[in-house]
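RETRY 2/3 - previous attempt timed out on the joint model. Re-submitting the same 903-residue input unchanged.
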Amino acid sequence: MIRNHILAMLKYAPAAAYVGLVYVFIFLPVVVLVLFSFQDASLPIPPFQGPSLRWYKAIFNDFRIMDALGNSLLVGVVSAALSCLLGFLAAYGLARYRIRAAGMVQWLLVAPLSVSYLIIGMGLLITFKTMGIPKSLFAVIIGHVVINLPLAFAIIYSQMGEHQANIERAARDLGAAEWQVLLLVSLPLLWPALMASFFLSFTLSWDEFIIALLVSRFDVTLPVEIWSLLRSGLNPKTNAVGSVVFIVSIVFLAVMEVVVFGRRRSK
Amino acid sequence: MRANRKLRGWGFVGPSFLWTAAFFVVPLLIMAAYSLFQRVAGRLVTDLSFSNYLTFFSKPHYFNALINSLEVTLVTTIISIILAYPLAYILAYRVPPRWQRIALMMAILPFWTSYVVRSYSWLLVLSSNGVISNTLQWLRIVDGPISLANSRAATVVGFVHFFTMLLTLTIFANLVQISPNYSKAAADLGASRFQTFWRITLPLSIPGVMVGAFLTIVLALGDYITPQILGGLRELLLPQAIMLQIQRHANFPMASAMSLVLMVVISIIFLLFSRWLKMERM
Amino acid sequence: MSKLVEIKGISKTFGETTALADINLAIEEGQFFALVGPSGSGKTTLLHILGGFTEPTSGQVLIAGRRVTHLPAAKRPTASMFQDYALFPHMSVRANVCFGLVMRKVPKDERLARAKAALDMVGLSGMSERRTHQLSGGQQQRVALARALVVEPKVLLLDEPLGALDLNLRRQMQEELIHIQKQMGTTFVHVTHDQEEAMSIADVIAVMNQGRIEDVGPPERVYLKPRTRFTATFMGASNMFEGRVTGRSGGQIQVETAFGRLAVPGEAEMEATVHLSIRPEQIAAGEVNLVGRLTLGKLRVQKVSFFGTYHRCQGRHLNSDLPMTIRLPQNESAQIGEELTISVARDDIVLLTR
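RETRY 2/3 succeeded.
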């Protein structure tokens, strides 16, 4: 009996060891980040002194960081909403109406996915400069819609197949006008796709750095503000900000898990 | 009636189409135009010429940025695949189904730190007063502080950290979707565990590796953050060189030309992968 | 003929659920053996235990006298044909068929020759280079068959292979399976939920229900003289009625039923309640020579449906109000409300004590 157990453990040992090592590699920087955010000294390096919340207090008192946080939220929500709206309209148009060159339109809408953010940002920078449009958060919103619109379109379009079309036909058959079909049937059916697009667009906008760096100046988003912090070298403030972003994201994920899983279970 | 419908259709598609045209296509065209201009003595000269491109490909200072990017990306991709595949395999086939999601979530958790902060965190680990240096000194393996940061190796570590997670995800997704009946059939016909892996599982998991590799190459080639934080300024990668043109020299023509080169390189890789994908379907 | 496969006391439990309870079966060499039953009856689980994909909780499996209960699938002299064919999508047809031979380290020339012979046998000559996704469902199935047979297994296990095919293709494949089986002499164990399919192709049928074997025997016997109530209703339509045992003598019992007192061969306890079954097609309507037959009274017709080769006639027995189904010939029919005189041959009444 015990021999079998030992043999079983030996069989799994190499795999477990490998997974363990890889997990250590993967978590190392995050652990260091979070650990030294509680550092009670001015440098987030060993030896560890603390724990202390002084750096968390510091970031909440830092108006630049708080402003940047608000800006990121604003840019994230607005650009995600715009991406979803435009993406939905485009998907609806392409899926329900016959347009000549539909293939080309589709290709164009998805094309930005194949270009690096750096290049998109550069293009916008040069264009805005040429047109005399100043750098601002609006410019960042524009850039984020450019990168997220293709995703929102693709996700929503993939959900507008025959099955959905039949349900809409049934609604029309029962007397609904076009706008009623859209509002009372199409949108509710697409709700999961819309939510997924919004969530994804927001997440990508939230963490996006290079476009935001290139086309904003005074009002910046959080990643750009963090970058400025990095100029001052190793700083526990950066640790604190990073840890906050991390913890918030995890909590958000956990909530989403429960909500999504909760709904699945009740079905 | 028909025309009305077509107009309606365009009405729906119009906004996105215009947005993409105005803020994606037009900027690319403007950038292409700029790449043919020059910046001379602090002013923009709009005579069309390929001088930027010539400069880029002839001066080692510039061209090396491209070579460095390609080398770093290649090394990163290979190491990430080697690290990620066994992890994805173990998660897919050795971890009980109940724990698979959690184990996978754990493996990609650092995805949810900000990308900038994630690279910064490696600085905390690799720099001369960072975790590794202090630990090695404490263990008396080295005498003084050693810096692993500001080097190509640090950039690779930073990249590998991120892309191992990405590849684990794509390979895992592929592995779990392979029908278990294939390995059952192989076993039924006499294959050992290794033979089943080598002849059935591995070939069927190549698409997942390819997708991950493609994403890795494209994202790594275009990344400014990781090399700038971890790589230092001794050896520049292409995105760093581009940003330098903008930030220090305000040389938009040169920056545009270099961006277009980057775009062409990425497009070539994209085409190669599409070709491979089409051949696979056959 | 010798016993090739012996299943002794096989049980399988998954946590709380019992999938198989004490199964005992013997399959002879060269037989086409069918496992029939509804979903959840355990027939697929039993097949998996035979193939080595699941280990039983208790019991033994012997193949050709050798204990294989804990042998992995790779080492057993069995080959399987899976329900979804499980053809390797990244290999050509020929590579698929050769796979088992490669595992057995058969030299290349011999491999190719045997693969070609196998593909010829299933009627797919010339398809070697195709990719599996380019084939139709029926063709994929033949490749799966060729792949399994080319390694010359002692037992071929088929897991509901014909379920996904349309009717004509299914009939065709059934005939081909019989033909190939007879030609090769391999023992086939075929799992299906379709009792007609089982009867038409198998030499021996085992009827399973809720993890147990209800009945085992040649198709005719299992259909005409089922041993359990489940078998009777599963293998075909049945007029089932109860009776009380009122007398026993010799090898016969007297049963008091809705049709009066019947004498049927069999054994049962006095005063016990037993069931009797008569197949619809065994009941004749109208005036009939009553030698060797039993009159069953009158049936009031409630519904008549045309099934091509016969009319199905449903109604109620006048005296007992028992619902009954009989069959009328193709060229005869009946009116709703009509009262038909019905009778049955004595020997066709089946006593069911289980």
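Chain A touches chain B through 77 residues (CB under 8 Å). Closing ticket.
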